[in-house]
Amino acid sequence: MSQQLINRNPHLKRLRDEGYQVEIQGGHLIVHHIPYLNSNKEIKYGILVSQITLVGGNVAAPHTHVIDFAGENPCNIDGSVISEIQHSVNQKRLTTTLVIDRSFSNKPPAGYPNHYEKVKRYADIISAPAKYLDDKVTEKTFTVIPDLENETPFRYIDTNSSRAKIEYINEKLKGQKIAIIGLGGTGAYILDQVAKTQVSEIHIYDGDTFDQHNAFRSPGAASLEILSESLSKVNYYYGIYSEMHKGVQVHEYNVKKGDLTELDGMSFVFVSIDNNAARKMITDYLAQNRIPFVDVGLGVTEVNGELIGAVRVTAGSSRKIDHLDTRIFPEEIGDNEYASNIQISDLNALNAILAVIRWKKEFGVYADLENEHHSTYTIEVSKIINDDHAA
After folding, report:
1. pTM above the 0.90 mark?
2. Which tens digit of pLDDT belongs to each residue from 350-389?
3. Is-contact 49 100, C-beta < 8 A?
4. φ, ψ for residue 184, nearest 5 deg
């Protein structure tokens, strides 16, 4: 994908054709092997990193004149810092393999019209002292960095993470296999969030069709033509989210006892179904096999013309499962949080977001100071109560 993007942009292609060692990672243009002098007048090589903006899959003109750099502070031939380009010193990990150390600022009166002019300008300034001391030094190696096979699970580059400089954090989910059991309102919103992460596979399980009432408690807006096709839920959502994520895999049935072994290879499982017996069967299996999961539920009741209720997220992990029997019940009893069958898209979305946050906490994307394995949001008092804390 990196070299394809470079081929489609004449300015990036010009950089590569002139010998610059360029590649695209996430939302960054990376230029390797930039020579410079350090304060000891030693010739070193650094990396220029420039944010890119994609429009319709193509690289747009630079939105900022600032550029990042991995390396020591470039110096003049006398060992003094090149002061004209100083901007900030702030070490930041962008990916698992790239840490930037500082940023530079050198803005032409009209800004930079393209990435060729921007990269060339900074490379010339930084490398000039090193080239003065050794005329064999060059940034133009004519080394083409090959694309990595299956370098990303997305159909297009995640420039949101790169703009926020949190790619390294989001990579903690890279390679995971996720199962989402049940694609009702909450399960669909879970899929919407998981599809925007770097997990390698997303297995979606549901045996029902996508009907008109589902459209009013699900992400997006289904057309009347789509509703008339009576698609299965999994095929409807596959049609949407496979446009963004390559790893969506369809299972057009409800999970039964004989299907449980399919969950053995999963990194994490989301359980979002309205059948207590099936929920209990699935979560018991996950707990016994130490497969981390969250089970979600919501209960809403009408009282005096207003709605009250609660949204629940119950987690199981290798650190804690002894609370599950008091939170997940095997029969359709009064504690069934789906019993009223009142579901509303905002509560479904909230339930899904809380579940996804719990998953991301499990793998270190978000800080987790409470280690709660059961939390309840009560609508009428706007409180979240955390219980069942792991040691």
Report:
1. no
2. 999 999 999 999 999 999 999 999 999 999 999 999 999 9
3. yes
4. -70, -160
The CA angle 82-84-85, to the nearest 5 degrees, is 85
Identify any residues that bridge with 13 across adjacent strands, giving them in sequence order: none
Q: Give the pLDDT confidence of 30-68 residue by residue, as tens digits.
A: 999 999 999 999 999 999 999 988 887 788 899 999 999
- Domain residues of the chain, as ranges? 2-157, 175-389
User: What pLDDT was estimated at residue 339?
Assistant: 46
Ramachandran region, residue 150 (left: φ > 0; alpha: ψ -120 to 50; beta: rest): left
Residues 6+ apart with CB under 8 A from 156: 54, 57, 244
Return mean pLDDT, the chain.
92
Element (H, E) at 99: strand 99-104
Tokens of 183: 């694609």
Which token pair is 226?
């789509």
Select the CATH number that applies to the domain covering 175-389 from these four: 3.90.78.10, 3.40.50.2300, 3.40.50.720, 3.40.50.300. 3.40.50.720
Residue position matching structure tokens 């996508």: 210
